Write the structure tokens for this entry.
Amino acid sequence: MAAGEAPFFLSLHYTAPHWPWETRDDRELALNLKGSLFHLADGNIHTYRRMIHHMDEGIGQLLEALRQAGRLDDTLIVFTSDNGGERFSDNWPLVGGKMDLIEGGIRVPYIVQWPAVVEPGAVSTQHCLTMDWSATLLAAAGAAAHPDYPLDGVSLLPVLRDPRSSFRRPMHWRMNHRGQRACRDGDWKYLRVDGHDYLFDISEDERERANRAGLEPERLQRLRADWEAWNATMPPIPEDATVSLGYSVKDMPQR
């Protein structure tokens, strides 16, 4: 960045790969949807693949624009997702998908490019949440959050500068759907679904098949208490809360 140039920020959100299951070649299908995004009865893996391909093309155009502007080397680019796999995704070896708090529904990768700072080809296992990127981007720009609106996230900038570094990052989730709650602290995860409590060692059992709640009741109680303490700091979830605008739990496929 040349001297005197202000940092810039761009947040680019793709619908793909997500319903409605359509590509740029599906004009007739798009017209038949009549304004509804909730394309629950259609789609296939071939459309899903084309959607990802078209998204990749768009990201490539963005990178080329940065390159031509001479801004690529000193621009922090983060590619990630909002939740785990959608209907046609392959989450192997994880179990579950969208609307689950098991790993297949919440674990996503992130890819970072910042040639001036980030070591190419490096891999980090640092746990984080989407909200941590807000703190990271502010820190990278040398800015601070407004004091009246403190951030929930923490900056990952030290990890970007040295992928071998890490820090403890407890993570918590909750969802009205099936009364789900989860807490991850290091290798261990507490999960509740439909009133049943589970304890998993994710480092040994990322498919979350071996419930260790009966073998390690003290660990379960500690993580459960941690979740309860976090939840006490949160506003209550409205009973009629929907998954997203116009799309409620009643619309989800029945298991």
